[in-house]
Amino acid sequence: MIKYKTETVEQEIMDKFFCDRCKKEIVSDMELQEAYTIRLLGGYASVFGDGCKVDCDLCQQCLKELIGDFCIYNAEDKDEPDISEPANTFNTEEVPLDAYL
Asked: Domain residue spans in the chain?
């Protein structure tokens, strides 16, 4: 038998978002949907430094100013995969327990 209990857990949630480039606070829900967080770890011989953690939060305007000239815009290309939702990489089909025995 399994018994359960209720537990209160403290969790960090985003309170405010500031663009690291222009320092603007993003407050509207629509703008927050288009705010970008970049997190990476510098690898061997990285220009950022070996094993260096790099964090950057950008508003959509700053991101476009920084990389917009290099982007390829395919808003009308229907042959591209839909990346608006993450791909389900797990098999969600139910498998009977005895299939593993």
From this structure: 16-68
Residues 40-63 as b/e (b if ≥16 CB within 10 A, e otherwise) read eeeeeeeeeeeeeeeeebbbeebb
Instruction: Give the integer Cα–Cα distance in Å for 86 and 2.
Output: 33
Residue 2's DSSP bridge partners are none
pLDDT in tens, 29-84: 889 899 999 999 999 999 999 999 999 999 999 999 999 999 888 877 656 555 55
The whole model's pTM is what? 0.60
Strands annotated E in 1-101: 17-18, 25-26, 36-41, 53-58
Placement of tokens 């978002």 in the chain: 17
